[in-house]
């Protein structure tokens, strides 16, 4: 099929390459000339494992190309995926719909008869119905439809999640739209991927419900970490033990500095805002607690760090391992690691941050922090080392060797993934959140 993917960020660039790889003819659309130039050469403008190879292959094969023209997109495509961002509005919990609205307004006049606009962005429930009305208003003559197809990809696994999703969810208003989406996703359906076809509102809600559930699971285990710290328990053993119950499951029960990124924090807030508008704010009041538990993790980490350096950061060197909001990503949006680094600097600490991939993005957001491309350089003369993003190379560190470069061998494992026993036997004092006795 002839497919356009509008918005080539983390979601759109991966979706475009995967659609081209699945046998479609794809046109990617963006307003950012730098992104377009990189993508046209087969280079992703961000770090995502597997994407460079996929992009190069599909661009070289001629099945994927890029443009900045919505008119060209409208004239070319049978199916148009809308993949632009819906960030949190300044000064409010609600999602900012200006990018989605601008795409629909720009595309509608150019749509061809029989085409389908498919929203993928995470939006407040009711948006799809509103946008369908907008298309009818802007181009009353055209026989075009709108559907919603939420995306569940995780950064770091985006290619695999798109090519082999664990489910496909589509919100449609006609059999024709459903048939077109089945054709788009034919390779996944042949491979046995579950396909859930529903109404527009349910499809929109599935996405925010899934993210709210994941955020709740993480904050649940982090709340248990708070209790463990007070009672002298061990949150990792607790998570392992409850995780054996298949009704609960161990995944997304890793306690630590909490969740960040471009999705979970803003999505639960936008969901609360929308529920309030719908008059059911009380139903989601627990998400406020989820958000609060999560934000307290950052504060608790800073407090523990201050305690470990003797009550004040003044004159202390602090090394931060990790800047990205999670490993295998260079995304620093709402990153707990960087927030903690900035808070320690604000309180007078000399902070040096290491990350294997996210230094450039981190520097753009927090230009006054000090950065190091080398782990040992970051830890040189440190009074405290904080492990805040669980990159594999941090698990492989030689604790004995690192001990020689620091001033004080004191470590906080903010992700509960390092081998505490090995670090201790190398001579380090190790602390972690929710593991007071360990
Ligand atoms: C998330 C959803 O998983 C995905 O389905 C949706 O499409 C977009 O939002 P992503 O933001 O890429 O994906 O990251 P995810 O792997 O879900 O992690 C989110 C945050 O939670 C990260 O900061 C991660 O470090 C943290 N996390 C995750 C925990 O603190 N503990 C856990 O047990 C799991």
From TrEMBL:
Its EC number is 1.1.1.22. The keyword Oxidoreductase applies. It comes from the Bacteria. Pfam families: UDPG_MGDP_dh, UDPG_MGDP_dh_C, UDPG_MGDP_dh_N. Substrate binds at residues 152-155, 207, 252-256, 260, 326. InterPro entries: 6-PGluconate_DH-like_C_sf (IPR008927), NAD(P)-bd_dom_sf (IPR036291), UDP-Glc/GDP-Man (IPR017476), UDP-Glc/GDP-Man_DH_C (IPR014027), UDP-Glc/GDP-Man_DH_C_sf (IPR036220), UDP-Glc/GDP-Man_DH_dimer (IPR014026), UDP-Glc/GDP-Man_DH_N (IPR001732), UDPglc_DH_bac (IPR028357). This is UDP-glucose 6-dehydrogenase. It comes from Pseudonocardia halophobica.
């Amino acid at each position: 099929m002839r497919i356009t993917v509008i918005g080539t960020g983390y979601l759109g660039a991966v979706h475009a390459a995967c659609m081209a790889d699945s046998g479609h003819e794809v046109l990617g659309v963006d307003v950012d000339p730098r992104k377009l130039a990189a993508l046209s050469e087969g280079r992703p403008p961000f770090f995502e494992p597997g994407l460079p190879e996929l992009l190069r292959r599909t661009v070289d094969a001629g099945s994927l190309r890029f443009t900045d023209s919505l008119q060209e997109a409208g004239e070319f495509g049978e199916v148009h995926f809308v993949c632009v961002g819906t960030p949190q509005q300044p000064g409010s919990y609600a999602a900012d719909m200006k990018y989605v609205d601008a795409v629909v307004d720009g595309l509608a006049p150019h749509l061809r008869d029989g085409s389908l606009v498919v929203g993928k962005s995470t939006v407040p429930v009711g948006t799809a119905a509103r946008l369908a009305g907008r298309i009818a208003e802007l181009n009353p003559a055209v026989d075009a439809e709108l559907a919603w197809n939420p995306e569940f990809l995780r950064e770091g696994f985006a290619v695999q999640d798109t090519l082999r999703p664990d489910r496909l969810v589509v919100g449609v208003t006609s059999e024709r739209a459903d048939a077109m989406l089945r054709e788009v996703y034919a390779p996944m359906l042949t491979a046995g991927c579950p396909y859930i076809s529903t109404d527009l509102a349910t499809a929109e809600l599935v996405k925010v419900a899934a993210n709210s559930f994941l955020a709740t699971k993480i904050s649940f285990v982090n709340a248990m970490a708070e209790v463990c710290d007070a009672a002298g328990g061990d949150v990792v053993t607790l998570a392992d033990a409850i995780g054996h119950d298949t009704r609960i499951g161990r995944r997304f029960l890793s306690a630590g500095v909490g969740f960040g990124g471009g999705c979970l924090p803003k999505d639960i807030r936008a969901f609360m805002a929308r529920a309030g508008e719908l008059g059911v704010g009380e139903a989601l009041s627990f998400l406020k607690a989820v958000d609060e538990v999560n934000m307290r993790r950052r504060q608790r980490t800073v407090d523990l760090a201050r305690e470990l350096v003797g009550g004040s950061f003044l004159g202390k060197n602090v090394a931060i391992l990790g800047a990205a909001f999670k490993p295998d990503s260079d995304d620093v949006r709402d990153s707990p690691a960087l927030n903690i680094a900035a808070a320690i600097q604000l309180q007078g600490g000399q902070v040096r941050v290491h990350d294997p991939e996210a230094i450039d993005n981190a520097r753009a957001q927090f230009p006054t922090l000090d950065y190091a491309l080398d782990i040992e350089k970051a830890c040189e003369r440190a009074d405290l080392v904080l492990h805040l993003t669980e990159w594999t190379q941090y698990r492989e560190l030689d604790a004995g060797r690192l001990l020689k470069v620091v001033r004080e061998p004191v470590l906080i494992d903010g992700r509960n993934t390092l081998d505490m026993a090995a670090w201790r036997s190398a001579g380090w004092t190790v602390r972690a959140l929710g593991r007071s006795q360990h």
